[in-house]
Amino acid sequence: MNKISALGSLLGALLLSTAIAAPDESKGIPKLASHEFGWQHNVEDWEDPPEGSGHGPIKNDPAYPYRSNAQGNASGEGATVRIVDTKDPILKPWAAAQMQKTNEEVFKAHETFVTFTAQSRCFPGGVPGQLLWPFEPFYVVQTPKIVYMLWQRDHWVRRIHMTDKHSENVKPSWFGESIGRYENGNTLVVDTIGLQTNMSFIDNFRTPHSEKLHVVERFTVSDDGKSLSAIVTVNDPDTFNGPITLSKKWFRVDRPMEESVCGENNVDYFNQGLVPMPEAKQPDF
Fold first, then answer.
1. Spatial separation of the C-alpha atoms in residues 186 and 236, rounded to whole Å
2. For residue 151, what pLDDT band results from cuts at 50, 70 and 90?
3. Predicted confidence band at 17 (pLDDT cuts at 50, 70, 90)?
4. CA separation, residue 248 to residues 50, 120, 203 (Å)
5. Alpha carbon 40 to its chain's center
6. How many CA atoms lie within 13 A of 191 on its CB side?
7. Which residues are 162's β-sheet partners?
8. How many CA atoms within 13 Å lie on the side-chain side of 44?
9. Could you identify which of 93, 149, 165, 244 might form a hypothetical disulfide with 158, taking C-beta atoms 3.0 to 4.6 angstroms apart as the criterion?
10. CB neighbours (10 Å) of residue 14?
11. Which helix (H) or strand (E) holds 182?
12. What is the number of other CB atoms lying within 10 angstroms of the CB of residue 229?
């Protein structure tokens, strides 16, 4: 058995070993989980939320239009780097100043400077930033007590505890403490606190946050089961002057999880100012 099929079999075994291998939709539990399909998107940024949702995602400076590789190739104009709009009034002064420093690094170095994104440097994406990882699916395992989100890329695992109360003392971590519940037969609502701040951003514009960050995600499965959408509300009184509402959509990919190693060739060969990839100083076995 090769590594790819072995990994798919392992995920399948995990699903089969749980009490809700096949979620009981008759009990209001949406079917998010299967070892036969995952959820994928191909756009690395947040989308605008429904009208009336308040302030949407942080965006590029209007004077410096952003084009991804795909957009640049399609238009023939080429890709551009992200220059964030630091004049957005939702940002507290310290956050705007920190983001402006990155803008200035890009201006100074031009094409030789590559700004940090978690997925490109093998860091966890945090919450909600992990949801932006593109081009490879994530998979879900649903059990009565914990819902697991498993990303194919680098195989990050996030745990959502199906309870209605947070712990009294939450130690900050990459994915924080997430608690969840089901609503309306098609939605998983997730409430997350306790998020650490080192190299953690809510988007690929490197929008920072404090340890007061509070994130509520609403994952909804479409009626035909072929797509998944999320409305994400971000509150952080130390970083933002109000809530921010974000949106994301995934399409279903009908294939098992494959092996995907991130941290290979982790050297800055072209002197682009890349953040070093996380490395273990010694083996853990």
1. 28
2. very high
3. very low
4. 11, 20, 12
5. 11
6. 10
7. none
8. 18
9. 149
10. 17
11. strand 177-183
12. 15
For every residue of 234-270, DSSP letters joined together read: EE-TTTBSS-EEEEEEEEEE-S--------SS-S-TT
Rg of the chain's alpha carbons, rounded to an integer?
Answer: 19
pTM of the model: 0.86
Write the burial class of residue 264 (CB in 10 Å: 0-12 exposed, 13-18 middle, 19+ buried): exposed
Query: Who's near 280: CB < 8 A, 6+ residues apart?
Result: none
Query: Tens digits of per-residue pLDDT, 259-271?
Result: 887 776 677 776 7
Q: What angle do CA 234, 226, 154 make, to 5 degrees?
A: 60
| Residue from 197, 221, 223 nearest 210 by CA | 197
Q: Give the three-state DSSP class for 277.
A: coil
Q: Helix or strand or coil: residue 240?
A: strand
Q: Does residue 92 carry a pLDDT above 60?
A: yes
Amino acid at the residue 237: P
Cis peptide before 128, with omega less than 30 degrees from 0?
yes
Q: Across the strands, what pairs with 97?
A: none
pLDDT at 49: 96
In contact, 141 and 38? CB cutoff 8 Å: no
